[in-house]
Amino acid sequence: MKQIKANDISRLFYRYQDEFEEKALSVLRSGHYVLGTEVTSFEQEFASFMGSDYCVGLGSGLDALWLSFRILGIGKGDEVLVPSNTYIASVMGITINGANPVFVEPDAYFTMDPEKIEEKITERTKAILSVNLYGQSCHMAKLREFCDRHHLFLVEDSAQSHGARYDGRFTNTYTDISCFSFYPTKNLGGFGEGGAILTNCPEYDRAFRIYRNYGSEKRYFNQVVGTNSRLDELQAGLLRVKLAHLSETNEERQKLTERYSREIHNPMIQLPKVRPFASSVWHQYVIRCEKRDLLKAYLQDHGIDSIIHYPIPPHLSEAYTSLGFHRGDLPIAERYADTVLSLPLYNGMTESEQDEVIQVLNGFKV
Ligand SMILES: *Cc1c(COP(=O)(O)O)cnc(C)c1O
User: Fold this and answer.
1) Ligand 1 pocket test target in 86, 88, 157 with most atoms within 8 Å of CB
2) The domain spanning residue 119 has which CATH number?
3) At what angle do helices 233-243 and 17-30 cross, to 10 degrees?
4) What pTM was computed for the model?
5) Is the per-residue pLDDT at 1 higher than 80?
6) How many domains does the chain have?
7) 22 lies in the same domain as 38
8) Distance from C-alpha of 92 to C-alpha of 49, rounded to nearest angstrom
9) Percentages helix, strand, coil for the chain, rounded to the nearest 5?
10) Ligand 1 atom index nearest CA of 65
11) Residue at a domain's end among 212, 243, 274
12) Chain mean pLDDT for the chain
């Protein structure tokens, strides 16, 4: 029996192998490996594709997050609202700067519940960090309106949502700063580490450029204590190849997930729903099941890998014991952690692989 993997990113590499290899060779032969023309071109192309004025290429998604709060002047004593069911990097982006995460429970779409924000606001609240988890768009219109009314920054963790839309507009068009990761498994993934921010603000654009390069705009003149977080030429070149196919690869994921939603029929399994007026780019197809651990083991017995995103919500993580949370404090995030399961999903997944997953899932009972 052939194992079906939860993810197989090599399929996409082989689909465009010639383009990737040609680009890699041309960068290797160019003699420019950091902050050259590939990075500049990628920044222009990504900003233009996503409908933002500026893009700054960075070393990772986490760097995009913590640098955002650094640049906005958010640190010790400040509070940032963040969904309770996110990947822990979102929270680290806040706490690296000494600011406090304030957790807001998710709604049925796995993203921050807009109805639960108001009650979390204090005089120390400075920003909302919305997370488009699994590729789903948050309720961007409500978040923007709320931030405007309360004079808060809206920062977005779009590490899983390159191209997600709300009301026909890319989610980044609603934010002050949007943070992206190009980790290899993301919808727009490179061949190593990488990240970027999108913004319409020229001051932020300039600040990111300074911070990513040791705080210097002019060589050896350092204005602030920055960091080293530069997207490299090889990643930028290869990301340009991927970006040219992003609409097509996101559409392929849409088709694959439509088929899951059409053909998985099992009363024990709850399928994901997409928010009204929103579109998902389906970074993950996440089902819910009360007998999740049994289901995962059953799939494994039938040669099908699956992943839990994520088994421990940030507030219960060992890294954040100092925040003083206990089980029961954020019951929705905890329930999701106990019941979610991501099905195999990747560009290049074949019809027969999907047949197999659907058939096995439909046969699950306890
Ligand atoms: C991947 C991811 C990050 C971190 O990105 P890196 O490039 O790995 O640093 C942050 N937030 C979310 C939601 C992610 O999925």
Assistant:
1) 157
2) 3.40.640.10
3) 150
4) 0.97
5) no
6) 2
7) yes
8) 28
9) 45, 15, 40
10) 10
11) 243
12) 97
